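MODEL INPUT / OUTPUT PAIR
PAIR INDEX: 1
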Amino acid sequence: MPNKDLWRLGAHDLSQLTRSGAVSPTEAVTAALARMDAVNPDLNAVVDDLRDAALARAEALDSQSPRQRGPLHGVPVTIKINIDQTGHATSNGVLALRDLIAPDDAPVVQNLERAGAVVIGRTNTPEFSFRADTDNPLHGRTHNPWGRHISAGGSSGGGGVAVMAGMGALAHGNDIGGSLRFPAAANGAVTVKPGFGRVPAWNPSQTAERGLMAQLMSVQGLMARQAADLHLSMPAMIAPDPRDPFHAPVPWQGAPAAGPVRVAFTRNTHGYDLHPEVEAALLDARDALTDAGYILEEVEPPDVFEIGRAGYRTLMGEIKTLMKPDIDAMGSETIRSLFQTYFAEFPPFEGDELLKMYAKRSHFARQWAMFIERYPLVLTPFQPQPFFAPDRDLEGVAGAHDVLGCAVYSYAMNFMGLPAACVPARLAQLPGGPQPINIQIVAQRWREDMAVDAAIAIEDRIGAMAPHLWAHMDRTH
């Protein structure tokens, strides 16, 4: 492969070349930066260009001996702008925070760099990282490379666009209700939302601790173009850091299954219309797993609608008290208005109700723990419909309902702290153009590796979305 095309390689394939010495980190990073120059002006995914530091770091990595080279040696990555990186603004898409310069690196930045990764840029997010779409007054809108008719997703929308368009082999993101999985679904990337306690988290620029629900529901992760890239990169992400006192140093790879893995399969969208293309994606994923030796059984897990809605209303109750004052003081009219819509769609639990729901979280998690003891994986829809258009969430309560209200399979898993992979299982030909359709695979606590294994099995049958996207981009630009 010519060096100029190295940006096409996923992290797994690229690292094999850099670690063997066949390709230098400088060559890998230079190719990613050239791709960024070619496509980012149109897409606005990377909003803080770190090329000078990236090239200097790559040059330093070039001289490392083979035994010094980490698993991500010279692999270009991006970091979301709501995470601390020394000397850069942790703006979170908020104008008032554009000069909040990080005094040190967050654990995920340190862990990626210790593994040999090279950060080439920082990616866009909506204000306060609290939309499933990516736009803000500070950096503007991030566009989906499949076309302007599809939202880029959020809140890690810049990362999802960057990795799928070829600007880095891995993209960091985080997820409190779907912020890794929404952009993965929008762009056709693959990700695994880790469970609670899996990846150490802390921003040194913080002046106060986050609320309890934010601590329990928010996780750090990566988006990739190929599922195998997660097996390569997530072990580095989960390295311990004492600044996160609740991080659990559990190995990435768990014990192998004694026999074929049982998978619960559901098409239940809890009263929301199931689009034919989403159903087709679920059936394709089911067939791929069956062919790979999994035992699929169509069976209903504990009520995801009740769990998801209860979880998001609990989160909204906490946000109304702890976060809304900052939104009112520093947010744009758009985000202030949107939170009023959120509060209408998800009436916040308050007072005694909020305390009781904190307690009931254990009840919900126990129900799923017992179910998942029999079915270690659960294949579910991610959303009942193909991905929505930009700004659909700003179209009143109906718009917020189409974007977040129906996404109960997403935030239910955050509320219970369960890991969930999101992988494309179909390329739908829709009136606006081709569009990836992602499904979700939920796993037992600490078994992200099993969810990724299942994602690989689906991808082996369906194929990765990136080549289709790049061909589409070449045709339409």
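PAIR INDEX: 2
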Amino acid sequence: MHFALPPRKSSNPPPYRPRSSRGGILQFIPGRLRRVRPRAMVLAGVLFLITLFYLLSGSGGSGSSRSSSGKRIPKLAPTGHPPVVLVTVLDDRKFSKGYLEMVKENRERYAEMHGYKTFFPSVTDYDLGSAPSSWALVPAIRHALTTFPNCRFVWYLDQTALIMNPKLKLDEHILASGKLDALMKKDHPVVPPDSIIKTFSHLRAQDVDLVVTQDNETLSPGSIVVRNGDWARFFLDTWFDPIYRTYNFQKAETHALEHIVQWHPTILARMAIVDQRVMGSYAERAPGLEEWREGELVVRFGPCKGESGPQTCEQTAQPYISMWKQAFGV
């Protein structure tokens, strides 16, 4: 689903006509204010500067707290222990217990190899109201950030996916600054194939807080990385807004993500799109989809019909189960 943009201004605006300079800066001040005594205006200016200094110093902000002695305690950045938390929401209403246990083992073995942690909430842990169960990924990421406040990144990987290459460490394969700078697509349409909203051409890896892939139709949040921090909480709260959950988007949280990325520059300015093969190739062969190749990090069994027939995804996964276990030495 593509969203219309506000009308553009005319490309042939009328010539600029400067206002009369008579009266200097006072011409911009309403007449009633011009009649205020100079001393009162000076006092108002001083109060404004005091207020501005108070806000900028963080005395009234949420970025710090105060000790019992009254000294301000700065908010500490995440220590990076663990560096990555791997999150997968499990739904035993749609998938068999054996399949979900296999998915958990896949994540746990990968995490253990690289010093990461895993987090496996159930879809029923979250009150989604009438929204589709796929929305659970958003509060699950938020939940992981609360449970592991010192982690550096959260990697959400859908239950219809497997990690296939244990040698590829996420924070080196994708997230290292030099690596991400080379991987991310700049000045690239957000919505394939030709959205007029594009990723920022000047974006640097050090400024990226969200890493996502695309398929041939839209953004693909089945494999998504979020950097821990205040921006992450703002982003997740925006994405999970009740307005979007009740809007009845055709692809639920996927189209909601597509919407907020296009309409909120604050989010677009922190997002990097990487090639689907980097962390989300598909098992199925279909036009416009990147089919998984041996050696790639992740294979996803989507778009499969897991919601209407769980065996469809599980059957698609069967050839890859023995492959990942062999790669992991299981």
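PAIR 2 NOTE: The CA atoms of residues 41 and 47 lie 10 Å apart.
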